[in-house]
Amino acid sequence: MSACVYCGFCSNFGCEHFAKASPQVCVLPVALELPSFELRTGAHVLRVELDADRKHARGVSYVDAAGTECFQPGELVVLCTFGINNVRLLLLSGIGQPYDPATGEGVVGRNYTHQTTSGVGLFFDESVHLNPFMGAGAAAVTMDDFCADNFDHGPLGFVGGGYIQVQVVSGAPISYHPVPSGTPAWGAAWKEAVRRYYNHSASITITGAAQPWRGAYLSLDPTYRDAWGLPLLRITYDFPDNDIRMSRFLTARADEIGRAMRGVIRSEPGPRKKPFTATAYQSTHLTGGAAMGDDPRSSVVNRYGQCWDVPNVFVTGAALFPQNSCYNPTGTVGATAYWIADHIERDYMRQPGPLAGKGRAGADLRRPAAAPGRRGLPRLGRRRPGRHADPGARRGDPGGRAGRAAGGPGRSFGEPAAFTGGSARSPGLAGACGGGVRHRAAARAAA
Ligand SMILES: Cc1cc2nc3c(=O)[nH]c(=O)nc-3n(C[C@H](O)[C@H](O)[C@H](O)COP(=O)(O)OP(=O)(O)OC[C@H]3O[C@@H](n4cnc5c(N)ncnc54)[C@H](O)[C@@H]3O)c2cc1C
Ligand code: SF4
């Protein structure tokens, strides 16, 4: 990767300088080197297909780039299509019991949380030049003193907290034009205020936790559908009073900091208020809906991201968070993805089945031993010779049906794992449509 040149257009844009780490820059080029990895672009997964007993996934149905609906068999399905979309796929596939806020029963869609953000607008005298067009996402000053239990919030009437941050990252033309409150919304006076304050304003942001509560959840929309006729995801959410109190307290602290800054002539705190609205940007950090836990009555997946109800389906992403802790999610999303991938490879693929509790040979999977010599990326796409116990798979049966019909112990890996995040891992055996030349040749061979 290149070194960052602090161009200032980091957030919301790709990096033309090749300096920003993201999966398509850091992970996909490595995976594409693997002979067993296949990337099918333009594939849109519709649902996970289950066996008749609804306890085992057969693969996924998807629409390929040409608009043809296809079935991709898979012994293992990993839902990795962004947190809340994973929840939608679970609901569309009938995996797990949907949450019902009236009875409190069900788990899929439960524990949905947003992030309780607020800000303080700072306006400086004209001797302070802030150059908001220069910056980078990582060039921020952050204080953690009011996060979680870093302070005593017992007497303050709320739980949780947040971090207070100054970050110069978004001085993009047209979209960035802070003006003091009371400025006309258009016309000459507005233009004059934009000119006056563009280089002499900043903001302090407060990124706060969000606690789950009974009335906040994800469900399938009864009215609106997508282009394939499937229900969209519906978000039912408003801020709990706890989070409003927390935001008021933290925003007041940030306002104190702002007023103490050199050159500030005006500090405008904006604590978060009810009701939630999707028309004003607050955060792109949507969390929960497929909570990770140790009890199937209150969680969708176990600590390895494995669905309690359909053990050959794993879920990644911020949907696993039981609540929003305040920190931005992606570090934890990445860490849990590696954790889940590691356990799929080390434990599930050796002995498919539920991973919670006691594992293979009585090993306590709650305290997994460190694997010696294992560093870096999980070995995506690597196949171990001699592990294909399914006779159907060895004969090239893409559905692996012969093995299952023979009632062999455990699942085999004659079928590829389907990664619904756009990268289906296909070691040469494939479904009926989509894919490239190698894919079609393999289908012919299988037939
Ligand atoms: C503008 C913006 C700014 C953000 N800034 C920050 C930040 O500063 N810090 C932070 O921690 N987080 C940030 N986030 C959140 C961060 O992007 C997510 O937490 C992270 O990308 C989640 O990773 P993921 O792998 O779960 O999903 P994604 O990165 O969204 O990957 C999901 C993939 O699945 C594909 N997909 C979706 N549906 C289907 C389907 N049906 N079939 C097949 N493929 C599908 C998508 O095309 C995508 O490639 C930001 C998000 C946005 C939008
Ligand atoms: S500021 Fe962001 S977009 Fe600009 S060079 Fe650095 S990483 Fe790339």
Could you explain the architecture of this structure?
A hairpin with a 6-residue loop joins β1 (44-50) and β2. The protein starts with 22 loop residues before the first helix and ends with a helix. The chain is built from nine helices and 13 strands. By secondary structure, it is α+β, with helices and mostly antiparallel strands. Bound molecules: flavin-adenine dinucleotide and iron/sulfur cluster. Iron/sulfur cluster (SF4) binds next to loops. Iron/sulfur cluster (SF4) is lined by residues 4-7, 9-10, 15, 17, 19-20, 136-137.
List keywords for this structure.
about 450 residues; alpha+beta; disordered C terminus; binds flavin-adenine dinucleotide; binds iron/sulfur cluster
Cα end-to-end separation: 44 Å
Category from helices, strands and their pairing:
alpha+beta
Output the CATH class name of the largest domain. Alpha Beta
Largest sheet: 5 strands, antiparallel
Anisotropy-based shape: globular
Radius of gyration, taken over Cα atoms and rounded to an integer in Å = 25 Å
Query: Which regions contain 5 or more consecutive residues with pLDDT less than 50?
Result: 358-417, 421-447
Number of strands: 13
Count the DSSP helices: 9
